[in-house]
Amino acid sequence: NYVLDNFYKNTPDGLIGNEDCGQMSAWYVLGSLGMYAVTPGNPEWTTIKPYFSKVKVKLEDGTKLKITEDEPASRYAGLKKVQQQKPPYHNIVPVPVIESDKKSFRESGSVTVRAFNVPRQLRYLPMYKVETGDRKDIGFSLYKAPINITSSGKIYAFSVDSEDGMKTSDTIVATYVKKPNDYTISLQSTYNPQYHAGGPEGLLDGIYGTDNWRKGDWQGYQGQDFEAVVDLGKIKAIKNISTDFLQDSRSWILMPAKVEYSSSEDGIHFTQLKSVGNTIDPHLSETVIKDFPADVNAKARYIKVKAYNFGTLPPWHQGAGGQAFIFVDEIRIE
User: Fold this and answer.
1) For 249, phi and psi rounded to 5 degrees?
2) Which of 124, 211, 224, 294 suits a disulfide with 287, CB 3.0-4.6 Å?
3) In terms of Cα–Cα distance, which of 312, 98, 330 is closest to 218?
């Protein structure tokens, strides 16, 4: 019942998994009845306490079932208790873990590789190799100390069984990005903690969000405009400004109505450079990524980006009356 109470909500993210063809909803119904399949496709069911004190079920042949806490579903569903046989298995070498504070860095980054071992037993040894802009390892080496990287690239790793060197885990890979500049950013809006994209610097880190926004590379702002000020460090000539936004109308994420770019030399007095309107239809059901580019001719140290929220969801939307999200990712200033 913990899953039924906590993992299903009447919100845009109300399903903990992919609904797809109705599997998540079907699990909820079966779980409420007191039975569910741990492994879909296998003719095996697990029984639990029904969620409701009494349930009436009408079957396709016209018969009706009554399920209560005292008369569980298993009694009527033709389920038989069986002694599960332990299948034969082979030891699997677990993959290692590649860790770092962040996926992006300014000058250099430190990465560790850790094999999965039980306490006081170092059976599995981590192996790694680096492929970055300034380093190309020919083969894998035994990991002994944190890896220092100074350019964008990938780190590959696998574990080897020290008791049987022929047994290894799958190879995993982690990607790290050197930030394209030393700009800093100050947010004037408050993002939803669930969609933080690594914090304010996530908008300048060179890591671009994909149409799978659930991976966490987009910042989400609900019921408010997005506003941020980028500090370039010194006064520079600026030719182009662009910001990426995402739309997934079904999840209440819509393009901003417009995006305004302003410049300043002192960070206090700003002059508007350009306003860019939206051209994406909010009725679209597909996930869309759009940049809002502006060609400008200015000299400034500070650039303000302000995106205007779509607002209240209209009557035609399945979430009518709710507040739309703005999802923003990378801000580029050239």
Assistant:
1) -55, -35
2) 211
3) 330
Report whether 220 contacts 194 (CB < 8 A).
yes
What pLDDT is attached to residue 88?
66
CB contact set of 207 (below 8 Å; sequence gap of 6+) = 103, 104, 177, 217, 330
pTM for this structure? Answer: 0.69
- Summarize pLDDT for 216-232 with one digit per residue, the tens: 899 999 999 999 999 99
Strand partners, 157: 128, 172
Q: Range(s) for CATH 3.30.2080.10 in the chain?
A: 2-76
Ordered DSSP codes for 41-72: TSS--EE---SSSEEEEE-TTS-EEEEESSS-
DSSP string for 171-229:
-EEEEEEE-S---EEEESS---TTS-TTSGGGGSSSPPP-S-GGGS-SEEEESS-EEEE
Provide CATH code, domain 2-76.
Answer: 3.30.2080.10
Say how far apart CA 244 and CA 329 lie, in whole Å.
Answer: 5
Alpha carbon dihedral 96, 99, 105, 108, in 10-degree steps, equals: -70
Q: Which fold has domain 184-333?
A: Jelly Rolls (2.60.120)
Query: 277, 267 in Cβ contact below 8 A?
Result: no
Q: Which fold has domain 97-178?
A: Immunoglobulin-like (2.60.40)
Helices and strands in the chain: count of H runs, count of E runs: 3, 22
* Beta bridge partner(s), residue 160: 125, 168
Which residue do the tokens 């599960």 mark? Answer: 84
